[in-house]
Amino acid sequence: MGAKIHIMQPELANRIAAGEVVQRPSSAVKELVENSLDAGAPKITVIVKDAGRSLIQVVDNGDGMAEDDALLAFRRHATSKISSAQDLENIRTLGFRGEALASISAVAQVELKTRIAADDVGTLLRIEGDTVKEHSKTALERGTTIIVRNLFYNTPARRQFLKTDHTELKSITDVVTRMAIAYPEVEWLYTSNDEVLLDLRKKSMEGRVADVFGERQFESLIRFNEKTEFMSVEGFICKPDFARKSRVDQFLYLNRRSIVSRMIQHAVFQAYEHLLEKGSFPFFILNLTIDPRKVDVNVHPSKLEVKFENESNVYRFVLSVVRRVLAEHDLFPAVAFTSGEATSRRDEPLRFERGNIPMTESQDVSGSAGSILSATALESATAVDIDELFARKREDIARTPIFPTRDDPTEAKSRVLQHVTQTSPMDSSQQGRAIWQTHNKYILSQIRTGLMIVDQHAAHERILYERAVANFENNLPFTQQLLFPQTVELSASDYGLAKELQPYFEKLGFAMKLFGKNTLVIEGIPADVRVGSEQRILQDVLDGYKNNEYNSTMDARDNLAKSFSCKAAIKAGDRLNTAEMISLIDHLFATQIPYVCPHGRPVVVKISIEELDRRFGRTS
Ligand code: ADP
Ligand code: MG
């Protein structure tokens, strides 16, 4: 008889459950503001005293509640937002668990005033624990006001775990700010101990971001917007020079719900690859729009974490969009020419947005070198506009070989030039394009804003690397068949490795036959590799691969992509003719990240006219 187990009183159960939803004042603020947003309020006011300990008040002019609903709202699992299991799969509101008001009233003294448009008077409720202490009518505009007093008054342990007022207030401010960014169409007023911390008019997205972060910061941001059928992403990313020392300034939303996701953070970070100094993190604001059926927001009571149906798709999507935005805006770290003084910082205005890239039908059609070169057509015979390089159709460029050569360099040259003459109306300008090779190592080219210097090896490496990665992800490799297949003899272990990696080599564009007895024959090589030294390249790639394998934990594909691009790329010391230089640069600017090689070293250095003027002491 003497049973030890009993069902706890609802009040106690509620108080325990409340801990999951309301961990600190900012979680109460978040829940209340979400309710106001779900009620469609055009204006929301948040008032806190003593970092929310003594008072949290949220006032909205949204839909309000009828008297019966107001009474129900404080019951656990009372919600107007979902009613079936199906609804749970398709959540379009911020709230849906029906536990916020129940939880808050379990651990604080709560006063609610609310009125719907159809009623003349509003309802006033005063609730403490599980009891309604007061229930009356009150005069009120349409909308809802909730006042939360003495949070955690009945849970001393919880109260003791709160941090300093400063920290708790910061957390509240963060919550309100995050919501205000996502809802620019809402007017916000936020005060702490009667001091106004945010006072935001209704704005466009840009206007809101400028208001919240200030004009200066706003200037450092690039707005972007990418829509696809299954997922869209829009927002702002910062130019690499304006990166932060912490991850605090990363604002991530899913269907306008503020969320945390290390996966997406990492995708953005990865997109900046080597553009950031160590220990720096990009500032970003990013809103993903995905069909609510394809995500689960009900992972945790705080609704901060989400689960995507297809994580790796989301990762790749974000990564490639951010990468492209950075590349299209020609962003790369400033090059300082004098110690201590940052010069040649890129301060030209951003010039093109995706979508208005000038492109004609005719440029769209073929993958021949001619179409690329004519697309590059230079109005002025001497200066290249980097934006034009970027603006051309990447796939077309990517489809043509960089060095359409056979072993004989003179033949190669005449072929390329012949091609140009045949197909490009601007043939003479190609030869007039101011481009030189110096020390058989760097390519100098005049650009509209000054001078560009390209490290030929690093440039080729970047091109090969991206091509290799793309090929591994199923693009068809391009192979140039060798007129004279090369027989290569390898050590037993290298032969074994070559055999193991053969499928990957083929994806890269190698055609080889294994003959046994440590002998293989190379019949074709990737289209982007200069013909002539395939034996050496194969051996070098294998060596590079072993080296990487020994020193790091790259996976096989990444390793091969890196060692291949490094070893197969032209070297310092390789002479290039004009057509090859032009082709190399065209291909470089068709890559995702032209400015850094796969090892993170710079590929391009630009010197602006202003920089040159400054160095020569010119004032004009
Ligand atoms: P949930 O938001 O998950 O539904 P809550 O406990 O936060 O659960 O709120 C319970 C219900 O109270 C909501 O579904 C909504 O109908 C109503 N409600 C709460 N706050 C407001 C508000 N500010 N304006 C209008 N209705 C509200
Ligand atoms: Mg809610």
Summarize the topology.
Elements: H1 10-21, H2 25-38, E1 43-49, E2 55-60, H3 67-73, H4 85-88, H5 100-106, E3 109-115, E4 122-128, E5 131-138, E6 143-149, H6 156-161, H7 165-182, E7 187-192, E8 195-200, H8 205-213, H9 215-219, E9 221-227, E10 231-238, E11 250-254, E12 257-258, H10 262-271, E13 284-290, E14 295-296, E15 307-308, H11 311-328, H12 361-364, H13 369-375, H14 386-391, H15 394-399, H16 409-423, H17 427-432, E16 435-438, E17 442-447, E18 450-455, H18 456-472, E19 479-489, H19 492-508, E20 511-516, E21 519-526, H20 534-551, H21 556-568, H22 578-588, E22 604-608, H23 609-615
Parallel strand pairs: 1-7, 11-13
Antiparallel strand pairs: 1-2, 2-6, 3-4, 3-6, 4-5, 7-8, 9-10, 10-13, 11-12, 14-15, 16-17, 17-18, 18-22, 19-21, 20-21
The structure holds adenosine-5'-diphosphate (ADP) and magnesium ion (MG).
Tell me what you see in this structure:
- The chain has 620 residues and is α+β, with helices and mostly antiparallel strands.
- It folds into 4 domains: 10-202, Heat Shock Protein 90; 206-327, 2-Layer Sandwich (Ribosomal Protein S5, domain 2), CATH 3.30.230.10; 334-455 and 607-615, no CATH class; 459-568, Ribosomal Protein S8, Chain: A, domain 1, CATH 3.30.1370.100.
- Helices cover 38% and strands 21% of the residues.
- The chain has 23 helices and 22 strands.
- A hairpin with a 2-residue loop joins strand 17 (442-447) and strand 18 (450-455).
- It starts with 9 loop residues before the first helix and ends in a 5-residue tail after the last helix.
- The structure holds adenosine-5'-diphosphate and magnesium ion.
- The site of adenosine-5'-diphosphate has 23 residues, from helix 2 and helix 5.
